[in-house]
Amino acid sequence: MTRLNSISEVVRDPARRQRFIDGCCAVLDAEVEARTGMSGRLVRLAYHQVGKLEGGRLIENVFDKLADEFAEEVDPVYQHWLRETGGDEPFAAWVESHRDELVAALLRVTDRERDRVGKPFLVMTYNRLRGLAERLVGEAIPAVAALVEDHTAA
Q: What is the pTM of this model?
């Protein structure tokens, strides 16, 4: 299968970008819904409340805002996969042995956003939840990798 050379190509193409953002939203929706127990219930409740903001488009708007940075951070991991496998091995399988690299790339985007916000309460809250976010992003890597693989098919 022919592959694009970067995720940046996806987010620069308006038609592909919207499908990619929709895919990001679907991955997040599924990850939130998969949370179980009392903490999962609280996460789902908070997510659904936040999801109502900006006319129900807050999550989509955030993904749209961060898509270029996401691509910039994940492109080196994706290109490493292309160089190492020629795109013949599924990205989702390959990334299992590079999970920490991809988690770090994704969290660099949200770390920069935290630094830009500059609101002490939000920064403090983010910093307190950063370890949990690292674990949850790690758990979501198979879905994120499948998303990347799906959207980089030429």
A: 0.88
